[in-house]
Amino acid sequence: MSMIKIENLTFSYPTSYDNVFENVSFQVDTDWKLGFVGRNGRGKTTFLNLLLGKYEYSGKILSSVQFDYFPYPVSDKNRITEDILQEICPLAEEWELMRELSYLDVDVDVLWRPSGYYIEQYFYAHNVRFIAVTDQFDTADPGNLHGGIMLPLKNMINEAYSLDIGRKIKAQARQAMKDGDYIGARAPYGYRKDPDNCHKLLIDENTAPVVKQIFEWAYERVALNRIVRNLNEMGIAAPSHYKKSTGEITSPGLIGSGKWQTRTVMKILESEVYTGDLVQGKTKMVDHRQVKADDDNLIIARHTHEPIISHELFIAVQEYRKQVCEESRAVHKRAYTPNIFKSKVFCADCGRSLHRQRAERKKGPDIYWFHCLTNSRVAKDTCKGVMMQETELIATVTTILEKELSVALGMSLPLFQLEARQKQKKDGLKSAKRQEIEKQRRLIRGLYENFVQGILTSEEYFELKAGYEESITALSGDIEALEKEMDALDDQLVRYRAMEKDVKSLAQDHVLTAELIERLIERIEIDHERNIRVSFRFKSEFQGEAAK
Question: Structural domains in the chain?
Fold first, then answer.
């Protein structure tokens, strides 16, 4: 068993000002059979591509397992199967490949056969009808069986043709960029696409003044947080919600919360498009992954559309933001202590993650606080406000854990003892069924001897043999079910032992660690009266929630 942990995942496409994911946190057990279901545009494929490392993102994706795409692309269908498998999984031993093929009831000889073998021999021998409509090929028609010889060659030609088309499309796109055509899916906030030419940008009279105001605030040294708060308090729709109202965005997965975010404002302030210039080609694909491109890949086209701000204003804002960054880096700051509650503490009133802030002291250790930033970063009076010192939070959560663990351990003891007896009983039952299988196999061998000696007719032999084989199949199914039940019991026993260990650790040390929190706690909520509610990960064992 392994866990795939997603922590504060935030991602947006370069051509969009809106996040597909924003501070998303959850975890997935690799033993699960999990399916992602949702309408188009919700982010299903995007999330899988993020797991494969195709896109840059903020946050963390933690996993001890490797992610693979299936089926694997095979460029040359005429290659020997073994060579392709060795390329896909170079560390696999030959005996491992043979073992997996045996599970599939496939002849190991396929390892040394090209793909053409299946059309010409394998499909024919196993009564498999193969039809290629576009090639007018059908294995059931002896008249065109020779067409199968050409199919692997056609596949190679088609693949080469596809690659050539891909190169031509990329070349055409880059030439369009050089010509000053906008190739983004949606127009940047502040602009709209020309109805007569989707590659040309026109001023959006509704949103262009907002963009201009954002740059003017930045020029006047207004902080990003304050700009965001101003926009939200003025009731100005965030870019995603505005584009939804115009019909430019239809997918609910791209709409977001409807509130302006510092990230959104920052992307606007960094975009040269508002000066009337187009700077495209900031990203490129490398090994099916979208990465940031070098400056050599950039394509800059000047004066392609009407500007919203002047070049002078844009340069002044960039210089000021650069100055702020340099001044911030120049200030010597002591390192923060590790946050053991990372991605776990939330505001009970507005649901946002609480910010951990440090109060530096000249004498003694620094003091850390958890508080809600909604009123300062979203809009005033949006939240009742939460503030709690970290030491108080640690003490309270430790007390809750000690209590709930002890209660859960006491409640689980009878279950532990019962499950231990059940496991022993099931183990004996499995052994008995295996003995019965051996007995049935001996009977089958006896049937064959009776058949050879003429005691049984052919019909009697096959009828009795089928009955014994059916019994063996049923017994094998029973054994498999017992093994699954025993594995589940083992897991429960392991969790009980881990719970027992956690109880002893807390009782002895009274120290709350990040590992313990991650393993036991799902979520911690604090309201404006500093009441704490803890949601545990294993509800069956921990009764779901505990509150102070």
Answer: 3-62 (no CATH), 81-153 (no CATH), 191-330 (3.90.1750.20), 391-547 (no CATH)
Pairing label, strands 367-371, 387-389:
antiparallel
* Burial tier of 541 (Cβ tally within 10 Å: 0-12, 13-18, 19+): buried
Helix (H, G, I), strand (E, B) or coil at 24: strand
pLDDT, tens digit, for every residue of 185-216? 788 999 999 989 888 999 999 999 999 999 99
Peptide bond before 365: cis, by omega within 30 degrees of 0? no
Range with the poorest average pLDDT among 43-52, 143-152, 304-313, 497-506:
143-152
Write down how long the chain is: 548
What does the DSSP 8-state code read for residue 354? P
pLDDT tens by residue, 144-193: 544 444 555 455 555 556 666 767 777 888 888 888 898 887 889 999 99
Contact 15/271 with Cβ under 8 angstroms?
A: no
Both tokens assigned to 244: 């939804």
List Cα–Cα distances, 276 to 197, 315, 316, 337, 365, in angstroms: 17, 13, 16, 46, 52
Q: Are 93 and 109 in contact (CB under 8 A)?
A: no
Task: Give the count of beta carbons closer than 10 Å to the beta carbon of residue 424.
Answer: 12
- Report CA 296 to chain centroid distance, whole Å: 32
Query: 245 — phi, psi (to 5°)?
Result: -65, -30
Residue 411 in this model has a pLDDT that exceeds 60: no
What does the alpha-carbon distance between residue 92 and residue 65 come to, in Å, rounded to a whole number? 16
**Beta bridge partners of residue 355, listed in sequence order:** 371
Q: In what order do the strands lie in the sheet with 545-547?
A: 345-347, 521-526, 532-536, 545-547
Cα angle for residues 108, 111, 112 (degrees, 5° grid): 115
Query: The whole model's pTM is what?
Result: 0.53
Q: Residue 452: how many CA atoms within 13 Å on its side-chain side?
A: 6
What amino acid occupies position 319? E
Tell me what pLDDT residue 462 has: 82
Q: CA 396 to CA 391: how far, in whole Å? A: 9
By the 8 A CB rule, do 450 and 456 touch? yes
Cα 251 from Cα 415, distance rounded (Å): 48
- Are 483 and 430 contacting, i.e. CB atoms less than 8 angstroms apart? yes
- Do 394 and 411 contact (CB within 8 A), yes or no? no
Q: For the chain, give the percent of residues with pLDDT over 90.
A: 18
In this predicted structure, the answer to whether residue 473 has a pLDDT above a threshold of 50 is: yes
| Alpha-carbon distances of 381 from 232, 385, 511, rounded to whole Å | 12, 9, 37
- Res 78 pLDDT > 70: no
What does the mean pLDDT of the chain come to?
79
Per the CB < 8 A criterion, the answer to whether 181 and 171 are in contact is: no
- Cite the DSSP H helix spans in 453-548: 458-509, 514-520, 539-542
